[in-house]
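Bench notes, bay 3.
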Amino acid sequence: MSTDHFADDPRTHLERMLAGDLYIADDPEITRRQRQAMRLTTRYQAAYVENPAEARRILAELLACAGEDIDVRPPLHVDYGSNISIGARTFVNYNLTALDVARITIGEDCQIGPGVQLLTPTHPVEPQPRRDKLEAALPITIGDNVWLGGGAIVCPGVSIGDNAVIGAGAVVTKDIPADVVAVGNPARPVRTL
């Protein structure tokens, strides 16, 4: 039997989501925003090769901030796009999945390898709230001049410091300081730069 977790909360699920609180993703505005992001990413992929100026315009419409001289190779998968900022001169290789229920900030001069996943959503560990479809999210922050190796996964709430290198396939579950190389699952610093 499902519990009304929001009986005393007059906010919409979108308002709860944007506040970083538990919500259920059945809000019509959430669905509208997700579909708009899908439309824009589809148009972006089509324009990337044939019309770079149009692709840049679409990317600027999709993202909260698209810094100068960024290169984001499609396909690109996002929940909303509007919660993602990418700093100037950053290169994003093929197949980035950036689930931006919460804010994702990528600094300047970063290198993002192919197949990287930036995952802000969280779900309750307890079975019943998860069965009731509750979710939330925690922001991800990636500093300047960071290199995320191919297939790296960055989990909710993680910050990665400036100049850090994250090895291919690493799973980043906790904050990584600046100026280190971190590898493994879970990712751990193995060298100072």
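Next record in the batch:
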Amino acid sequence: MRVSVIGCGRWGTLISWYLDSIGHEVALYGRSGSAHMQILIQTRKNDVLELPESIGLTTSLDEALKAKTIIVAIGSQSLRQLCQELCDHGMKNKTVVLCMKGLEKTTGKRLSVVVSECLDASNKVAVWLGPGHVQDFYAGIPSCMVIDSEHDDVKKELVDAFSSNLIRFYYGRDLIGNEIGAAAKNVIGIGAGMLDGLGLSTLKGPLMSRGTREIARLIKSEGGSELSAYGLCHLGDYQATIFSQYSHNRQFGESFIKKEPYGELAEGYETVQALVLLAEKNHVDLPICQGIYEILYHGADCMSVLSQLFTRSLKDEF
């Protein structure tokens, strides 16, 4: 398969390396003004991996769009702008695979919806989601992930083409649930980091259990399946998000509590805005996500928020 990857950060670079390693023809696109891209052009390396010569590097979007399959791995809040650029370049009849976990913060919209709104209807959209960190994959540590799309033929083609001994892919059956679940796990990851920063890591068990339950309710309110919250997109990604040293969201939460600077992208910071929007729209109770939102955006005291969660009215677990 001829594939172009848009996004020259760690994840886009890892995807390029992975797809090349299993035999695909891969080009990696980055903007000419990107510091990450200039380093890759000069050294073919970043701080995690080295790209083989078989992977093409380009700063030309027209060149990247010669591939039939376009994989996008950029920050979620930049997706609409990218789609406008792709539209301006006349992109049609492509398969767009979103390797991103987020929601549009100003609208609460899923990323596949953003793409469908912006691009020509001849393009088909899929999502690639699930647990795994760049460092682990590059070290040969395997994981399981999921590919979902409204188009069954696209799902089958991608799962068949991208599966290997390093990544076992499953066919997704709930695009709504998979996208919301994948985005929301980053918010729970920030909450986990906050607990680490407070020295309350033992509360990660309740956080995982109750966090999954409230996201399941949200997924259902949006028309998806509650079961998706318990799949690879959300609960299955908790180890990588809540415990791993490589988790940007967990580290951001810990740094926030300790009032330490943190410069990496933590998608959950903006995603929590979208979750609050969806909760209000659908009249769904998201006490954990709402608490994280109040801490991040309204300066609420973390221990006071935790106390409020503990003193909520008593109820059955399920």
